[in-house]
Design brief:
heterodimer; A: about 350 residues; mainly alpha; MetI-like fold; 14 helices; disordered N terminus; B: about 375 residues; 2 domains; two-stranded antiparallel ribbon; 13 helices; 2 strands; membrane (chain B); MetI-like (chain B); Phosphate_PstC (chain B)
């Protein structure tokens, strides 16, 4: 305390007391930025080695260097580093926004071209290369059915698995299951597709199909189930852990057996969270292309039966149209991509809003 | 997501502990107290399917539970959940078994060395195919994508957790999460139809001024190259690494941060001394998970790479192929051996991603234990 009060006083005769270190004025940063842009434009256009993109890139580098030097002179090395890193972190963020904006803009501008009633009411059956019409009705049917069947398979399995991990599992075995659920999250979707190809299409389905491999929407559902299962188990597990222990204990105290406590008390309490997790998993599965490509077989006609014959899906439709040589195909691909993204994002946003409302409600 | 397990894990595990002892005590009390009860309860229990009739007999309490029935229903339910849990292990083992079963015939028919041969001709009368070029392409694109994505992702994660105002940080974090939900086929389409142009211009520019560096050499055509694939891949793994790292950075103990600031550290010094060391295992785990995702990415790469199976370090010339992209592209015209060959390559991919994922999870798990014991 005494040193604090005496130090400025002691320094007073020589020079003005400094309680604050010198700071770089706000305008200086702006000045450096302007100077960097001007200098880089002069350099690039003067030597003729590039265009606007290079001007921006060089200006950022010059700005960072200039900021560091100026700050180093005025404020010292530590502040200079602080400022440079802060600028780098901010620019990383701007850099990441660029693709996001670009994808959104391309998607909307190119996708709106074919997004009409005809697109949602027709399939690609009998659509030739010179036909500008054609739609994604069959693909939308396929996506909805495949994801629906996959959800029917996965939700009971996933919820039961999560119940085992949280309520019953003990020791090494439960830990192993939990660990491999996490590992399973990282299985590439194409491997899930190959698995169902090897297991269902090439080994099981020939039994029902006169010895020929039978591609079907159901096979795609199986592959999607493999991908959805770990997501659903993980989110359900998190939600079950959030259920307060006193609720369980109260139920046990009333003499209710454990299985009934879980089904009547624990699950209903965790239900909104579980629904959120299921919706996120569904959104992810709806966008998968690779497994559907391998096992559903594609197809241009409307097929309402997921258990027999080829089916398409929206994601697969995008991929097939993108590879099509017809000059009308890209517009169809973009319209389908826009539809798919809208579907996925609506599901995701709804799920996140549901989760958020819950958290605040509790 | 990250902060729930440590606190509530105890709550969850505490529940079952209470029950097991409860069930045992209830059963014991029953058998000792009223020997005639089971027979007396039998119709009641049969109607109500299990021990819930016990609630009707308030004074009787847990002792009134018909022992065998309640135990039976619980047993069945427990067995059911355990079977569901075991399914996870069964599926992983089944994936390995069925892939091997279908890959072996094709590998036996292969007349070239599977691990070193660079081409992919499994549909010929004497099938020749090898994973060499594909595995090389997979590793090259993934590593390049990570090199591009990780610094940016860490920057964004730090921005969201420590620089942005709270409200904006939440909103932008939400936006980044949405980016993760966009299907890969959309990124593939975007990369092929839009991003191709700028990348081709960049490649031409790099080739003009830096062709003395081998990776920027060659004389075209440019565009559908490793560079385009890696950039698209980088954009796709960015949200994953960002959201995991942000969670980790956000969990840094406030005491550590405040201590650093109180000692006079600047904001960057605080981040470097308090936030980054704390988050390092989490960041490594997130990077490994991103690597796993990048290795397995299929459709986006099938649409943006030049699909040429050779080993070349040139990243801007048309070319490049990966295991997963090759499966998607070659599946259409594959015959029986061709399908087996693709399954064999899928088996390699499965093994690599399994190793990467197990390592990543092990790192994350170790960190979780560490933070739990510290808390």
């Amino acid at each position: 305390m005494s040193t604090l009060t005496t130090a400025p006083g002691a320094a007073a005769p020589g020079q003005r007391p400094q309680l604050r270190t010198r700071r770089l004025p706000t305008l200086a940063a702006l000045g450096i930025a302007v100077a960097a842009v001007v200098l880089s434009a002069a350099l690039v256009y003067g030597t003729g080695i590039g265009g606007t993109a290079l001007v921006v890139a060089l200006a950022v580098v010059l700005y960072l260097a200039g900021l560091y030097l100026a700050s180093n002179v005025v404020e010292g090395r530590r502040q200079a580093r602080n400022r440079t890193w802060s600028a780098l972190i901010h620019s990383a963020f701007v850099l990441a926004l660029l693709p996001l904006v670009s994808v959104t803009w391309t998607l909307v501008s190119k996708g709106a071209e074919r997004l009409d009633g005809n697109f949602f009411q027709t399939s690609m059956n009998n659509i030739g290369a010179r036909d500008p019409n054609g739609g994604a009705y069959h693909a939308i049917v396929g996506t909805l059915e495949q994801v629906g069947v996959a959800t029917l398979i996965t939700v009971p399995l996933g919820v039961l698995c999560a119940i085992y991990i949280v309520e019953y599992g003990r020791g090494r075995f439960a830990f192993t299951i939990r660990f491999f659920v996490d590992v399973m999250t990282g299985i590439p979707s194409i491997v899930a597709g190959l698995f169902v190809l090897a297991f269902w299409i090439l080994i099981i389905s020939p039994i029902f199909n006169n010895g020929r491999p039978g591609y079907s929407g159901f096979a795609a559902s199986l592959a999607l189930s493999v991908l959805m299962l770990p997501t659903i188990v993980r989110s359900t597990e998190e939600m079950l852990r959030l259920v307060p222990a006193p609720l369980r204990e109260g139920s046990y105290a009333l003499g209710i057996p454990k299985w009934k406590t879980i089904l009547r008390i624990v699950l209903p309490t965790a239900l909104p969270g579980i629904v959120t997790g299921v919706m996120l998993a569904v959104a992810r599965a709806a966008g998968e292309t690779a497994p559907v490509l391998l096992v559903a077989g594609g197809g241009a006609a409307i097929n309402f039966n997921p258990f027999e014959n080829n089916q398409s899906s929206l994601a697969l439709y995008v991929y097939q149209q993108a590879g099509d040589a017809s000059r009308y195909a890209p517009a169809r691909a973009w319209a389908a991509a826009l539809t798919l993204v809208a579907l996925v994002l609506i599901l995701t946003i709804a799920a996140k809003l549901l989760a958020r409302r819950n958290r605040f409600g509790r | 997501m990250g902060d729930t397990p440590d606190g509530s894990a105890n709550a969850g595990t505490g529940g079952p502990g209470v029950t097991t002892s409860h069930a045992r005590v209830a059963g014991a009390a029953l058998s000792v107290d009223v020997p005639g009860t089971p027979a007396h309860r039998a119709p009641n229990g049969a109607g109500g399917r299990g021990g819930d009739s016990g609630t009707g007999h308030g004074p009787g309490g847990g002792g009134a539970l018909p022992r065998r029935r309640a135990f039976g229903a619980d047993r069945v339910f427990q067995g059911l959940t355990m079977a569901a849990g075991t399914m996870v292990l069964v599926i992983i083992v089944a994936i390995a078994i069925f892939l091997i079963a279908k890959a072996v015939p094709a590998l036996n028919a292969n007349t070239a060395n599977f691990f070193t041969f660079e081409g992919w001709f499994p549909n010929e009368s004497s099938p020749r195919f090898g994973i060499g070029a594909l595995a090389f392409g997979t590793l090259l694109t993934s590593i390049l994508a990570l090199l591009l994505a990780v610094p940016v992702a860490l920057g964004i994660a730090l921005y969201l957790s420590h620089y942005a105002p709270r409200r904006i940080g939440t909103a932008l974090g939400f936006l980044i999460d949405l980016l993760a939900a966009v299907p890969s086929v959309v990124f593939g389409l975007w990369g092929r139809d839009f991003f191709y142009g700028p990348v081709r211009d960049l490649s031409v520019w790099l080739n003009k001024y830096f062709s003395w560096i081998p990776i920027f050499g060659g004389d075209g055509p440019f565009g559908k190259s490793i560079l385009l694939g890696s950039l698209v891949l980088a954009i796709m793994v960015l949200p994953i690494i960002t959201s995991l790292s942000r969670e980790v950075f956000r969990q840094t103990p406030t005491a550590n941060e405040e201590a650093a600031l109180a000692l006079g550290a600047t904001k960057w010094e605080m981040i470097r001394t308090a936030v980054l060391p704390y988050g390092r295992p989490g960041v490594i785990g997130a990077t490994m998970l991103g690597l796993g995702r990048a290795l397995g990415e299929t459709i986006a790469l099938a649409m943006t790479l030049g699909i040429v199976s050779n080993i070349s370090f040139n990243i801007i010339e048309n070319g490049g192929n990966t295991v997963a992209a090759n499966i998607a592209n070659a599946f259409g015209e594959a015959n029986d051996v061709g399908r087996g060959a693709l399954i064999a390559s899928g088996l390699v991919l499965f093994s690599i991603t399994l190793i990467v994922n197990i390592t990543a999870r092990a790192i994350i798990y170790r960190r979780r234990e560490f933070t739990e014991s510290a808390a």
